[in-house]
Design goal:
The complex is a heterodimer of chains A (302) and B (707). Chain A is mainly α. Chain A has one domain: MetI-like fold, CATH 1.10.3720.10. Helices cover 76% and strands 0% of the residues of chain A. In chain A, helix 5 runs antiparallel to helix 6. Among the domains of chain B are: 236 residues, P-loop containing nucleotide triphosphate hydrolases (Rossmann fold, 3-Layer(aba) Sandwich), CATH 3.40.50.300; 90 residues, no CATH class. Chain B is built from 25 helices and 24 strands. In chain B, strands 6-7-8-3-9-10-12-11 form an eight-stranded mixed β-sheet, sandwiched between helices. Classes of the chains: A mainly alpha (302), B alpha/beta (707). Chains A and B meet through helix 1, helix 9, helix 10 and helix 13 of A and helix 1 and helix 16 of B.
Chain lengths: 302, 707
Amino acid sequence: MATDDRPQRDPLRALRATVELLRDIAQRPTGLVALVIIAGMIVAVTVGPLFVADPAAQDIPRRLEGPSLDHLLGTDHLGRDLLARLVHGARIALGVAVPSVLIAMVIGLILGLTAGYLGGRMDSFVIVVTDSIQAFPAVVLGLAILALLGPSMTNVIIVIALAFSPGYARVVRASVFAIKEDEFVQAERSLGSSTPRILRLHILPNVIAPMLILMAIDLPVAVTIEAGLSFVGVGVPPPEPSWGVILNDGFDRIRAAPWPVIWAALTLMITTLGFTLFGEALRDRLDPRVREAVRGDRQGRS
Amino acid sequence: MTGPILSVEHLDVTYHVRTGSLPALRDVNFELQRGEILGIVGESGCGKSTLSSAVLRLLPANGDISGGRIVLDGDDLGEMSEAELRALRGDRIAMIFQDPLTSLNPTFTVGSQLVSVQRAHRGSLTSGSDDLRERAIEMLTSVGMPDAHERIDYYPHQFSGGMRQRIMIAMALLLEPEVLIADEATSALDVTLQAQILELLRRLRSERDTSMLFISHDIGVISEICDRMVVMYGGRAVEQGAVRDVLTDPKHPYTQALLGSVPTKERRGQRLTTIPGRVPSLSEMPEGCAFATRCSHAQEVCRDPGPTIVSLPGRDVRCLVHDPDSDYDTTAIDTAVDPTTPAAETGGWLAKRRSVGEVLVDASDVEVHFEERPSLTTRLLRRPGDVVRAVDGVDLNIHRGEILGLVGESGSGKTTFGKALLGLAPVTGGRVTYDGEDISGLDQRQFRGMRRRMQMIFQDAHASLSPRRRIGQLLTDPYIVHDVPHQDRIPVPELLEMVQLAPEQASKYPHELSGGQARRVNIARALALRPEFIVADEPSAGLDVSAAASVLNLMKDLAGELGLTYLIVTHDLNLVAYIADRIALMYLGRLTAVGPTERIFDHPAHPYTQGLMDAVATPDPGRSQTPHRLLVPGEIPSPKNPPAGCRFHTRCRFARRDSCLEEPHLDHVDDGHMVACHHWREILEDPDAAERAASPDLGYAAEESGR
């Protein structure tokens, strides 16, 4: 009998919904561009390193060369293969951006849910904290903290997560404020549901969409912040092929050999563009107002 | 100048969507005579609103008029250019919408909006803005706005809902339109206000001879104000005729069913007629009679393409039953299921309900005060913040097994009181006992145990279901929350069956259900824990009449089968007259009258009760068209600052300075009927004398002279 109580679960439902979502996004030209770029990034991060040279192998005699068959994008000031360094750099870029955004989301979610649902003093406290953090520009905040902690990949992740979490807290808090006034929350209370249960089952699912959108928008920003911090030397330390490090190395010798700067800047630009376009497409698809309009159109009733 | 002012001739409207063309209106044919009020009635999805936008040529971009004509006083609207149409809208045809708050621009004063409407249409002839303003003031005064010359410079938000609706009407009438379209113009208003607005429209019609198209889902309102009515179903006009004729002798099975599904006092103890199924969506509209799928008289021939209009004396009906030339076999009509005479209740429902037991819920002097969060300046000046006295001292017993109706206008605190009983609103004073146990002091955690015994059905059927959970999950949630062992649970299919839903619904999400289905899920959820006591907040709100009727039938059946006790919170006097054993009337946080339903209706001793009963719109051919006396003028005051003494005195026609400024207490009239009024004896004996004794500077009398 117990099994009867549960509605039939469709194991492929989530997958199917994702496929449908991606198909919708691919229907707009910008969305298609975004998907292609992100697919490229995923390939570079997963299997890319198998196809390129060792990013640390130095070949001093062939330093600062332009593109050739041996080195498709040329070499840097130590004769290292630029393509290999950029592909490995993608791992660092995403290896910093993805965890930092995820951490920011979790922190923001916890703060936003408690502030939004409990309100009152807790809410005021969270607002003061998030406002204080947001008052500093992210890069300046990062510079200050990294100057204290010292440059390392972990520290960069901590800094970016810290800078981003207020955004999530605010988005979640605003959604919770709106949702908790909805009648179904009161209906759940009248049923006897506990606060944690209401938060988990009835409020959380309704704040996921705006958070996903914010994540997609934050990812490229995180990539540029990492590159920026590494560029000025407080981010990921030099032997690692971070895009910021490549830029920095290339910048010193830009008159002799512009290639490292050109390739690194182009990579950074395309990556940022891809994620930004994806974020926008996702926002348009998930925004309840847009979706509601589409649904109304489908029903076509007067 | 004798022909109809507006004639809609065989109108077809089609919506074009990705999947093809959807016929929204088919062969709609009617005439609006000069000075006539023509009602258009039907359930949602029947094409009422499409019709009104078609008449204004304001169809959405994917809709067009695919056949027929709309002729306004000799001019074919179909041949007009966009510029001509713009000049026509607002000038020759004007519209009043349902929601006056969103239809007025909040950033301009009422006066400037009224002036700019005139300027837009009469720009070249403008005689100066002073004249336009003068005319606007005149118009506002004629729709019943006191101090119009002063209030014309107010912004829309500074007016109450009723006044905003009056402003909308003034704006519509400003240019003396030939046709006024009122689309659900009173649906969002309380009964007392609705009666005032209907009275105003009726007066304006007789003064100005304006022709009106009055669109409403509420057959009661239609019967109150209209001369003739058109019943719409599935994009077709299925019946039209004089209101009185249609009400006394409906010919079309749909009209019959619609009338049979309205709850009224006369139908007490009877089952309401329900129409099985729902209005077919536009994409699945049958070729033949649109109603055939739900009609108890349907025969095979009804599915053949299009029944045509049959003209009977004074009546047009689109039904084969009345067409002598058709193949319809009239001898086969089963008179036993004639929907005009609803079957008497089987199993003696009313008798069963009479076995009312001991007191289950005992509210004594219950107060619910909400403190508004004071603004910074208020806090700095250390002044106390505003207190909203939503419920302000209510004594009420609810007996085991009874259905108690709690009635009042919006803002009377009735819903808050219902929630306070269930611990969903803070009880700030007095006490509530449930089955002998004091529950007013319990905190949320302590209350959880009680929740298995008492449940609430919320007003908005869709909004009260968590949107991202399936129906099956929603129905098992109560058991998980209360850790009910599996053997004690009612399986989901059984719960769905209890509320007459198919088991397949379990896998759906709330937004995939119709309003009636969602309401049933709410009821099933409330019943899952086998409670004894249910608070139902506006159980028929937002539902079409036939859906509401089946929900009411269901609630009544369940009350009998499961021995439930209900508190039904509603503004709808017809509803409680039909279903409730006892009625309590609430006004500004206080009870004004309590008593058995018959006693309240037969001897309404409190002036407020009398006023509500006078204002309610009922599709009763004997009663309709007699003008309302508008016994309760104005609007309910704010519960932040209720009037001193008897709270009703500001709207009471019997208010006296010597007594009514003191608080009345509930006084026993007879047989369980109590009223809170100092003068109920005089009012019952000789209302005219009591009215003459009223102080001229208080209440109703003051309102009258202020006009």
